[in-house]
Amino acid sequence: MDDETLSNDTHPSAFHKKHLSMLERLSKRHNQTRSEDPDSSSSSSSPSFESTSSFFSRFNLLKTSIDSQLTQSQSLTSQPSQLKPHFDKIAASISDLEKLVAENSYFLPSYDVRSSLHTVSDLKQKLDNLSSQLIPKKKFAFKSKGGNKKTDSVIVPQPEPEPSPVSISEKTSSITVRDSLGFRNETGRVLVEDVRGSEVGEFTVSDLDSCEVRIIGTVRALFVHRLKDCRVYVGPVMGSILIEGVEGCVFALASHQIRIHHAKGSDFYLRVRSRPIIEDSDGVRFAPYGLRYRGIEDDLRGAGLDAETGNWANVDDFKWLRAVQSPNWSVLPENERVGIVDISNPDNGKEEI
């Protein structure tokens, strides 16, 4: 395939062939990146499904279960009170399927990641259609099933800014906020969680406006939903990070795999083992990770993230299939970078060095 863009041929068959050719090229590029990293398959922190066949075995099992639940929905029309719990259960299953893709995508070929994410999107659409059809009076959406979970977090009060709602599109509102340790529904706060010496699985940050988040130590997975004008500083993440619906934010993150969906006008300071993935995003900029707290070097080594791969600048835009670089992201100019941010002391603001 030459460098001619996909849009130059509108014939459906030709478009399909070029589309598949582009996906194959993305897959080859991803595998080449893996071959240049000899430690990518031997790290002790690699996902449990460290092969394409075993991943798809689990993926297809969960998808079949979801399809079966969707088929059963019509039989519940005679029991309207059972429809909402039924749809909530399906929504949680789809969220688990999406999480499975995120946690394993760092070793999967790009084509398989893209195909799996499209399958998840199709299932979400089917669920939305069914729920709108069977519960027409109240549109269904993926929502949190539980309230805020109590934590030992330090919350440092800040002067209250003028309240402004977080602007979130209809697409991002269909994300499940998982019932895990985390920060939710705050405005104008400094939110600090020190997890050093403890084993933390998932950590969720959602529905924040004008907040600063500091997570000191290591967590297994991080989920970020619906943030506006926030700063998020996070120690090493053993698995994956999923970011959905953010605007005007700054992130400092280290992880094996990072997926960013519906981000606008935000900066990302990253250290990542695989290529970062963006979708439906614009005005996002990238720079190398620059975070400091006491013990972070040990945490980075323990998570297999002590080496700088340079992947922070190798971004894949899954909604941009042309041969030229996507205009939706760029490298953050050095003279605009914030420098190293020290979050060691939860009582003080960040220190730029």
From TrEMBL:
Coiled-coil segments: none
Renumbered residue ranges of the record's region Disordered: 1-52, 143-171
Principal subcellular localization: cytoplasm
Domain C-CAP/cofactor C-like: 163-320
Biased composition (Low complexity): 40-52
GO MF annotation list: tubulin binding
A matching Pfam family: TBCC_N
Compartments (UniProt record): Cytoplasm
GO CC terms in record: cytoplasm
One GO-annotated biological process of the protein: tubulin complex assembly
Gene3D superfamilies: 2.160.20.70, Tubulin Binding Cofactor C, N-terminal domain
UniProt keyword list: Acetylation, Chaperone, Cytoplasm
InterPro entries hit by this protein: C-CAP_CF_C-like (IPR017901), CAP/MinC_C (IPR016098), CARP_motif (IPR006599), TBCC (IPR027684), TBCC_N (IPR031925), TBCC_N_sf (IPR038397), Tubulin-bd_cofactor_C_dom (IPR012945)
Family according to the record: Belongs to the TBCC family.
Quaternary assembly: Supercomplex made of cofactors A to E. Cofactors A and D function by capturing and stabilizing tubulin in a quasi-native conformation. Cofactor E binds to the cofactor D-tubulin complex; interaction with cofactor C then causes the release of tubulin polypeptides that are committed to the native state.
The name this protein goes by in its record: C-CAP/cofactor C-like domain-containing protein
Organism for this UniProt entry: Crotalaria pallida
Lineage: Eukaryota, Viridiplantae, Streptophyta, Embryophyta, Tracheophyta
